[in-house]
Amino acid sequence: MLQPKRTKYRKQFKGKIHGIAKGGTALNFGEYGLKALEPNRVNAREIEAARRAITRHMKRAGRVWIRIFPDVPVTSKPTEVRMGKGKGSVDYWAAKVKPGRVMFEIDGVSEDIAREALRLGAAKLSVRTRFIQRIAE
């Protein structure tokens, strides 16, 4: 699973996901992509599950690019623990995704295979998504 090798600080504030994505909104690598339509945190397990679903359907033909990285530590306290005594330990890593962000790109396969592969990948994610493709020039 994806996670940073090292970070400057172990824990982070929760923060809010405001507005639309500033960058990463266009296809840069592949012919087809999966674009987020709503703001949310996508954890590393979801990203890995989506990647596996996509590559499995493509039968390892073509190429997959993951355009998001889980760099936000999400903490939680154990169950049945009283309030106070500091912040919980890091539970999992997540990526903050804004609307308009391209999360996955694929290339080297036909459109119908790409559409189905990204549909299967999108089912693993906690955000609503849309299939996009490069406009022929």
Features:
4-stranded antiparallel beta sheet, alpha+beta, 2 helices, 19% helix
Can you walk through the features of this model?
- With 137 residues, the protein is an alpha+beta fold.
- The protein has a domain at 40-76 and 89-133: Aldehyde Oxidoreductase, domain 3 (Alpha-Beta Complex).
- It is 19% helix and 28% strand.
- The protein contains 2 helices and 7 strands.
- The chain has helices at 44-57, 111-122, and strands spanning 32-36, 40-43, 63-66, 72-76, 89-97, 102-107, 129-133.
- The strands form 2 sheets. It has a 4-stranded antiparallel sheet with strand order 3-6-1-7, covered by helices on one side. The protein has a 3-stranded antiparallel sheet with strand order 2-5-4.
- Helix 1 (44-57) packs antiparallel against helix 2 (111-122).
- The radius of gyration is 17 Å and the shape is elongated.
- It starts with 31 loop residues before the first strand and ends with a strand.
- The model has no long low-confidence stretch (mean pLDDT 95).
SSE arrangement:
Layout: E1 32-36, E2 40-43, H1 44-57, E3 63-66, E4 72-76, E5 89-97, E6 102-107, H2 111-122, E7 129-133
Antiparallel strand pairs: 1-6, 1-7, 2-5, 3-6, 4-5
Helix pairs in contact: 1-2
**CATH fold-level topology of the domain at 40-76 and 89-133:** Aldehyde Oxidoreductase, domain 3
Strand order of the largest sheet: 3-6-1-7
How would you state the average pLDDT, rounded?
Answer: 95
The secondary structure category is alpha+beta
Task: State Rg.
Answer: 17 Å
Assembly of the depicted chains = single chain
How far is the first residue's CA from the last residue's CA?
37 Å
What is the CATH architecture term of the domain at 40-76 and 89-133? Alpha-Beta Complex
SSE topology string: EEHEEEEHE
> Helical region count?
2
Largest sheet: 4 strands, antiparallel
Helix content: 10-25%
